[in-house]
Design goal:
The complex is a heterodimer.
Chain A: H1 9-13, H2 19-38, H3 43-65, H4 73-90, H5 95-117, H6 122-142, H7 144-147, E1 153-154, E2 159-160, E3 163-164, H8 168-191, H9 193-203, H10 205-210, H11 215-241, E4 243-244, H12 251-264, H13 269-302, H14 306-320, H15 325-340, H16 344-357, H17 375-378
Antiparallel strand pairs in A: 1-4, 2-3
Chain B: H1 2-29, H2 36-53, H3 58-79, H4 89-110, E1 126-129, E2 132-135, H5 136-158, H6 160-170, H7 172-177, H8 182-204, H9 217-228, H10 233-253, H11 258-273
Antiparallel strand pairs in B: 1-2
Helix pairs in contact in B: 1-5, 1-6, 1-8, 1-9, 1-10, 2-3, 2-4, 2-8, 2-9, 3-8, 5-6, 5-8, 6-8, 9-10, 9-11, 10-11
The chains are: A mainly alpha, B mainly alpha.
Chain lengths: 380, 287
């Protein structure tokens, strides 16, 4: 049994909790370095996990740490992607500068949304960001001079300092580097006064304000920072998909991002990464399952009779190849998580950890959340 | 001009009806139901199923579809949404978004992703009044909305159950202590709201075709609800009509593409300038 007693303020501010945790992270990093040699066929999918991880971290800062739930983050991804492609391919800027500019443009858009958002709370803010995302999608469709509209826009492979990163493994390491950079920056921000101000605003705006936190400044900052991260993710995303069209950045993508932070667990960077892995790899799993499940079902039913087996194969095959199945599955997972594990995968992990480290004294009530039934209690 | 006005009024009534569904649920349970548009879609599909698959008459199918969807709404509340009462609003938002996705998936599996037309007694008929052609479909929408609103208003003001609902919406705990069966009230309000959504879907069906993406109209209804002030029943209707008019007029006089986003631009502007909308009140924490 390991105790975690903090005896000084510095301990609370450390990047890693203790040496054990740091060593685990180093081991994880090494594992990720050799991963391309082990699973060469899934590299593209894993790169997407890293890109989504960046998106997850971005939304986690806003929704999980500042308490501003955005339903329009796909719009920021779209702005980043199109801006990057415009800078690199139309203006011919170097890759690194282009990504930085794309992040700046997206951060500007974030401020633009953040300023009116200062007056809104809760659901109103979600609705406003949703409206913003729909407007941006329309703009991306109509502004044909830059975005090429519905025709779509092919994206070249990234070339950094004259080195082409066309190979899957090279792109994998680029995404990994971006994710680690983003995580490091975010973790540092979160343990600095900025992050503490964000958390204070999340927990109670009025209390934060009376303690001298400049609400407007930190909320806008959260929006700008989150959007900038999204811009970098968008640039990578553009290279990943290889072809930009406005309908990629739909409301459904925004909802997937939210699914990510909820499934992962709100209020933790780990959660963002768990969620990203989940959302990015689920379609891969589904497509694998589509190929295999009908055959399994056929074999199982075939024990009862050969004709029944063939019928079961055809029936299940037709069912799993329905085009509308995937969003429904995402929805179902979202519903199940909200109902049964509101703290997400990371919350479940914490519970399991606590169960073993305090065995046999684990109490369910540790994680019980206060419910509110009065309107006045809900205002923060 | 007058033509545009009437069409805008009809479209606005639909937005208003969907917004009314949002507002009813919000008023009573403080949940924001992002699946409202999808309930509307289910209503339209159910009616279509009764009419075309089972050969029921339009009016019978209308009643059957509304009752089915209303029962479904009540079941949804008692099975799923009751479990998240008292949790942060965000959880509910995510929950209803997830439910909406499930409904769309369900519809595409059961009814397929084709586009259907619902035959009605009003289809392809029109009346000319003072040089303006009004199709009967639009008349049915406007008339349906007016009747429904009058009925709802009477229900909330004059019946015991309606007043009990108002009490439950103001303070769940206090209402419960006063002997109001809050849970049953919530199921009832979900049933009403789902029923209203179904009616909106069925009225809309002849004008716009039925497909699984009908539910995205719910997003514009959000604009209507916010413009009217979330939580205000007359506000929802006024907001809906305003959005409908703005949309049709911007389609006629402004460049292409503006029509599709006009509702959202209005929404953003309203939220930035006057978050409480036309009729709403904003709650502040007193310290």
């Amino acid at each position: 049994m390991r105790f975690l007693l903090k005896t000084s303020y510095e301990q609370d501010l450390r990047l890693f909790r203790d040496a054990v945790q740091r060593n685990w992270y180093i081991a994880l990093g090494l594992a990720l370095l050799v991963l391309p040699a082990l699973v060469p066929t899934y590299l593209v999918d894993i790169s997407l996990v890293f890109i989504y991880g960046l998106c997850g971290v971005s939304l986690m800062v806003l929704a999980g740490y500042t308490g501003l739930v955005s339903l329009g983050h796909a719009a920021f991804l779209g702005i980043g992607a199109y801006a990057h492609v415009y800078f690199v391919q139309d203006l011919g800027l170097p890759w690194v500068i282009s990504v930085a500019l794309a992040a700046a443009v997206t951060a500007g858009a974030g401020v633009l949304v953040g300023l009116p958002a200062l007056r809104m709370t809760g659901v109103y803010l979600s609705i406003a960001t949703l409206a913003f995302a729909l407007i941006i999608q329309e703009v991306l469709t109509r502004w044909e001079r830059v975005t090429h509209g519905l025709k779509g826009r092919p994206v070249d492979k990234p070339v950094i300092f004259g080195v082409s990163l066309a190979h899957d493994a090279a792109f994998y390491f680029l995404c990994l580097a971006a994710l680690i950079g983003g995580l490091w920056l975010t973790a540092n921000l979160l343990r600095a006064p900025t992050g503490r101000a964000w958390v204070a605003i999340r927990d109670s705006e009025i209390a934060a304000q009376s303690m001298g936190v400049n609400r407007a400044r930190y909320k806008t900052l959260a929006f700008a920072y989150s959007a900038a991260l999204m811009g970098v993710a968008g640039a990578l995303f553009a290279h990943k998909v290889g072809f930009l069209a406005p309908d990629i950045f739909s409301v459904l993508l925004s909802i997937q991002f939210l699914l990510m932070v909820v499934v992962g667990g709100l209020g933790s960077l780990h959660g963002a990464l768990f969620g990203a892995a989940f959302v990015a790899l689920l379609p891969v799993l589904i497509s694998e399952a589509r190929d295999r499940v009908p055959a399994w079902a056929g074999q199982v039913v075939a024990l009862a009779g050969k004709d029944a087996g063939a019928a079961a194969f055809l029936g299940v095959d037709r069912f799993v190849k329905q085009p509308g199945l995937e969003p429904g599955l995402f929805g179902l997972i979202l519903v199940l998580f909200i109902l049964f594990e509101p703290l997400g995968v990371y919350g479940r992990w914490r519970k399991v950890q606590l169960y073993f480290s305090t065995f046999p004294l684990y109490k369910r009530a540790t994680f019980r959340r206060q419910k509110t039934y009065m309107r006045s209690e809900r205002l923060r | 001009m007058l033509q545009l006005l009437l069409n805008g009024l009809a479209v606005g009534c639909i937005y208003g009806l969907v917004a009314l569904g949002f507002v009813l649920i919000y008023k009573a349970t403080e949940l924001v139901n992002f699946a409202q548009g999808d309930l509307m879609m289910l209503g339209a599909f159910t009616c279509y199923m009764f009419v075309v698959w089972y050969g029921a008459g339009y009016w019978l199918a209308f009643v059957l579809a509304v009752v089915t969807v209303a029962l479904f709404g009540a079941a949804l509340d008692s099975a799923v949404l009751r479990r998240v009462l008292g949790q942060p609003q965000f959880a509910v938002v995510m929950l209803t978004i997830g439910l909406g996705a499930i409904f769309r998936s369900f519809a595409s599996i059961v009814w397929g992703s084709e586009i259907y037309t619902l035959p009605t007694p009003f289809s392809a008929r029109a009346t000319r009044i003072a040089g303006v052609t009004i199709s009967h479909e639009y008349i049915s929408i406007i008339a349906g909305t007016v009747i429904l609103c009058a009925a709802l208003y009477a229900f909330f003001t004059f019946t015991r159950v309606g007043v009990a609902m108002q009490a439950a919406s103001q303070n769940q705990l206090a209402a419960y202590y006063m002997g109001i069966p809050v849970k049953r009230m919530f199921s009832l309000i979900w049933a009403i709201s789902a029923g209203v959504a179904a009616i909106a879907g069925i009225l809309l069906a002849p004008v716009s075709l039925i497909d699984i993406n009908l539910g995205f109209l719910g997003l514009k209804a959000f604009a209507a609800a916010v413009l009217g002030g979330f939580g205000s029943i007359p506000g929802a209707l006024a907001g809906g009509v305003t959005i409908g008019l703005i949309e049709l007029f911007s389609g006629a006089y402004l460049p292409q593409g503006v029509k599709d986003v006009a509702a959202y631009v209005v929404l953003l502007v309203v939220l930035a300038i006057r978050p409480q909308g036309m009729f709403g009140t904003i709650a502040r924490k007193k310290v």
